[in-house]
Design goal:
There is one protein chain. By secondary structure, the protein is α/β, with parallel strands linked by helices. The protein folds into three domains: 146 residues; 249 residues, P-loop containing nucleotide triphosphate hydrolases (Rossmann fold, 3-Layer(aba) Sandwich); 64 residues, no CATH class. Helix content is 43%, strand content 15%. It is built from 17 helices and eleven strands. α1 packs across α2, α1 packs parallel to α3 and α6 runs antiparallel to α7.
């Protein structure tokens, strides 16, 4: 019986390369010209690679929807152990991935190219040694030339005028990696891989909640996601994720409902609207007065007619509605998480560090371990948060330490072809202002030079009670921003919902 080659050092990466060949036409487009089946050290990965490439040669597509049919046709020709290994791998792929989804194509391409270079050198070196032992110097030289040829084939230089490069540009332009829903998604714009995004806010303004929202939305979009937290314990982080996914309520009030904020119009609240479309004739408060306490028996009705029909006359405000939610407890939460585990359990991982103990290099190491042990390659990386990371170089402090951290985070995004989102604090002056500016960035304003996008969270005490948050854009490398506009976001953090609804509005100066 032929021996099935299993080399632990190569298996994990070879499996990921095979996954790319099965799932992604984009990956095949780039890797197919470089493949030599001898690069695969395991016979079962070599077999699947031949199937995938043969399918691509015939149909110019990845064989994702057809790979099981190919296996069923070919399995009688396989040795029992090889067939078992292939079947296990195909089942794992079908559970974890969908066509063109779930794989960090750019990062896998870089890894595959480096692996092919390594295998080419390894193969040619072994061949050269054998030929030299036989005294065949000409044959050894020919092997050396073959090494030079593969180095040329895997060159990273790009001719931007090449027809394939132009075609790839427009294909990629039509895809969106991630975009948050509603107006907040329009305000922040499409998010691309390789970006570093900073979220600035004062203490207790919801930075961690927004970072978790990025993680959850990425996970729901089938994007492999990791959260590195130096801010919270594992228990508190799990609690927030469970709340966000279920919207179940802890310690439900005696009346049995939760106050959910909803958009309203200030002119409706103050009684200054005389439109026939207004939903009631009651006055909730005078202008600049405190909000009254919500009472489920109040006859007052929020009105957003102008929001949809006459936006220029709409003055953004918020009121509440009563919503009954299940209780957050040891019975309800596990049932819900069981379903999420089935659908998304392979897409989200959390790593907790004590404050100031882990730097970005430590995170890279743990990402490598995650790839090796669970075959999860993160495309969305959340770091909560930058200031409490450990120094990148020993004994670095102050501005040097902060600059190195932000440079390392930007490098992490680029090398991993992943989006990195992190939070940052504001200055003492920033704690007092209604709207944050770049000058309120804490510790090292030079971090703005390392980010692709930088947003601020604004909220005064009135807005906090009203369940409103204002997100403003401070910097963006790839699109124009208008700092007179903000995105108003409704929140109910008691049930873990940082974005219930959103509206882009020009900020009032008064």
């Amino acid at each position: 019986m032929a021996k099935i080659l299993r080399r632990k050092i190569d298996t994990t990466l070879e499996k990921r390369i095979i996954t790319g060949l099965i799932v992604s036409k984009r990956f095949l487009n780039e890797i197919y010209p470089l493949i030599d089946f001898n690069y695969f050290t395991n016979s079962f990965t070599q077999t699947i690679a031949t199937w995938a490439c043969a399918f691509y040669e015939t149909y110019e597509e990845a064989p994702f929807e057809h790979i099981q049919d190919i296996f069923n046709t070919e399995k009688e020709k396989l040795l029992e152990e090889e067939g078992t290994l292939i079947e296990e791998l195909l089942v794992s792929i079908s559970k974890k991935y969908s066509y063109e989804k779930g794989i960090n194509i750019e990062y896998l391409r870089d890894q595959a190219i480096e692996y092919f270079k390594f295998r080419e050198l390894q193969i040619r070196t072994n061949n050269m040694q054998g030929l030299l032992l036989k005294g065949d110097t000409q044959g050894a030289e020919e092997e050396l030339n073959k090494v030079k040829n593969v180095q040329k084939a895997t060159s990273s230089w790009v001719n931007p005028f090449n027809a394939e490069e132009v075609k790839r540009f427009f294909e990629e332009a039509g895809t969106v990696f991630l975009q948050l829903p509603g107006d907040v998604g329009e305000f922040m714009g499409p998010i691309e891989k390789g970006w570093l995004i900073g979220i600035e806010g004062a203490f207790k303004r919801g930075k961690t909640w927004l970072l978790i929202e990025f993680a959850v939305m990425a996970m729901l979009a089938k994007i492999p996601t990791v959260i590195f937290s130096l801010e919270m314990t594992l228990r508190k982080m799990k609690e927030r994720i469970y709340k966000r996914l279920t919207a179940y309520a802890m310690n439900i009030e005696e009346h049995g409902y939760i106050k959910y904020p909803c958009f309203d119009c200030k002119l409706n609240q103050t009684g200054d609207c005389d439109k026939v479309e207004r939903k009631n004739n009651l006055t909730l408060r005078n202008y600049n007065e405190e909000m009254p306490e919500f009472d489920i028996n109040m006859e007052y009705t929020p009105c957003t007619w102008c929001r949809e029909n006459s936006p220029r006359e709409y003055k953004v405000g918020s009121w509440f509605r009563a919503v009954v939610r299940p209780e957050f407890n040891e019975t309800t939460v596990p049932k819900s998480m069981e379903e999420f585990d089935k659908m998304f359990g392979h897409l989200l991982r959390i790593m907790i560090y004590p404050r100031y103990t882990a730097n970005v290099s430590d995170m890279e190491h743990d990402l490598d371990v995650l790839e090796q042990t669970e075959e999860i390659v993160a495309e969305m990386i959340i770091v909560d948060y930058a200031e409490i990371c450990g120094p990148e170089t020993k004994n670095s402090t102050g501005v040097q330490k902060e600059d190195e951290t932000w440079m390392a985070l930007a490098s992490l995004a680029g090398k991993r072809h992943a989006t990195v989102v992190t939070g940052t604090q504001v200055t003492k002056e920033g704690l007092e202002v209604r709207k944050l500016q770049l000058k309120h960035t804490a510790r090292w304003v030079g971090k703005i030079g390392h980010v692709d996008a930088f947003y601020a969270l604004n909220q005064d005490e009135f807005e906090k009670k009203a369940g409103l948050l204002r997100i403003s854009a401070l910097a963006h490398r790839h699109m124009e921003i208008n700092d007179t506009f903000s995105c108003y976001v409704l929140q109910q953090l008691h049930v873990g919902q940082p974005i219930l609804d959103s509206e882009i509005m020009k900020e009032e100066t008064g």
